[in-house]
Structure formats: structure tokens, C-alpha cells
Amino acid sequence: MKNSHTPKHNEVEPKGSENLTNMVKETTTMTQQSFTTTPVYNIQMVKEKTLLYNGNRLTAPEQAAAAFCALVGDPDREYFVALLLDGKNKITGIYQVSQGSLNQSIVHPRETFKAAILANSAAIILAHNHPSGDLAPSREDIEITRRLKEAGDLLGIRVLDHVIIDTETQNYKSFTESGLI
Predict the structure, then answer these.
(1) I need a labelling partner for 37 at 20 to 30 A (CA). Which of 99, 114, 142, 166 fits?
(2) How far apart are CA 116 and CA 137, in angstroms?
(3) Using CA atoms in the order 48, 50, 59, 172, what is the torsion angle rounded to 10 degrees?
(4) Is the pTM of this model over 0.70?
(5) Phi, psi of 42 (to 5 degrees)
(6) What does each of the 181 residues of the chain score in pLDDT, given as a tens digit?
(7) Domains, the chain, ranges and CATH?
(8) Distance between CA atoms of 60 and 35, rounded to whole angstroms?
């Protein structure tokens, strides 16, 4: 004989014997309500243009300055770029991090290293111009270089140099040669 207990009108069901069907319905409803759609991304780099490059290793800041000038010409505003390098210091790409105003450019580590990470760069050389022709690094130039070097160290992407360039004369100031890195 089966022992089945059916609650009477005023009788309370014993704890733990809730109606399973109602529980499943409530759980399904809660589960459906607790999720939202999440986009799935595919990250890729898009080549905008190409520049002639002899394929030699970058061994001197004037090479970085020449690559920078080939990219931006002689603009009337600041540009900040990262030269993306492989393990043998050959340029694998040039990434324009920021286009600024007459005397400043907004630079953040997140934006600076985005292309370097996607390109599997071993190192980068930073370069930006001073349209005024004054090659002395500003306090902000020194501070952002320090931050970028620290970020590169964390990411395993070496910051080899930061070069400030007067694009009109192609004169430059190297942080490495000046002992600032």
C-alpha cells in the first residue's frame, strides 16, 4: 500500500515538499530574466596604407624620425605614433595613436599598446612631433613616456625609445640618447 499524503484544505505541506512543477517554472523565469545578450567580438587590424621601408633593423633614432616623417609629413599639429617592431627591431607596422592640436596630443597606454598587442610586437618606438620646432621634452612628454615604459614592461613589449621630431627640419631628440629612458 502506498503512503501518499495529500494536504487537506487548511493543512500546511511539510517543509521540502514544495510543488516541483512550480519551482521549475519559477527557476526558468528567474534564469531567463537574469541574463542579457552579450556581443561577441572579432578583433582585427586593418591596413590603411603602406610606406616604403627598406626592411633594415632600426638601430638609430634618426631611422625612427625618418619613418615618422614619411607617415605624417610636416603637419601643423601634433601626431603621436608607435613604430611596431619585431624581435629583430624591424618595423612591422606604424600606428597613429593620436592626432592632437597645435601643442598637445592626448596619449593613453591603452590606446598606445592596442595595435602592438594585435601585431604581436616585441617592442615599440614612440615618436611625436613638436610643430613649434622646439625639441625639448615637456613635463607631460617625460611623464607619459615613464607611464608607457611601465605599461610596456607589464605587457612584455619593450619601449626602446621616444623620439621628438621637428618635421620641418627632421631634427630629433631621443629620450634614449638623452638618458630619459
Answers:
(1) 114
(2) 24
(3) -70
(4) yes
(5) -120, 120
(6) 555 555 555 555 555 555 555 655 555 555 556 778 888 887 777 777 677 677 788 889 999 888 888 888 888 889 999 999 999 999 999 999 998 777 778 899 999 999 999 999 999 999 999 988 899 999 999 999 999 999 999 999 999 999 999 988 989 999 999 999 8
(7) 61-174 (3.40.140.10)
(8) 54
